[in-house]
Design brief:
The protein has one domain. It is 83% helix and 0% strand. The chain is rod-shaped.
Length: 115
């Protein structure tokens, strides 16, 4: 049975989706900026202490990116959960309407056949 997209669009809480969109876009841009940013200072003649400090900064940067990614994924999952709940509600309503329409059709046919 095809999904009536117009009815699905009415059930989706668009206010919440639109309200969450700027934050998700902002987080995605920040994450993209961090992951495509400069690799950091790399000099072959650095002392071991400088190299260790550079590695510690890089590990901290990766940890920050992981935290940002986790937050973004969590928000996307919550938004996806709300959309799935809305589609499930729509599916249940469609089933009820189908049963009511079937009963009405049978009643109409019976009324036409019985004089």
């Amino acid at each position: 049975m095809p999904i009536p997209w117009a009815a699905a669009a009415k059930v989706i809480p668009w206010g919440e989706v639109i309200a969450a969109a700027p934050g998700i876009v902002r987080s995605a841009r920040e994450l993209l900026t961090r992951t495509t940013g400069a690799e950091g200072d790399r000099a072959d003649g650095d002392s071991p202490e400088q190299r260790i400090a550079a590695l510690e900064r890089q590990v901290q940067k990766i940890d920050d990116e992981l935290t940002a990614s986790s937050d973004l994924i969590t928000r996307l999952a919550e938004q996806n959960e709300r959309l799935i709940a809305a589609v499930d509600t729509l599916h249940r309503q469609l089933a009820i309407v189908s049963v009511v329409a079937g009963v009405a059709l049978l009643g109409t046919i019976a009324a036409l056949l019985l004089p």
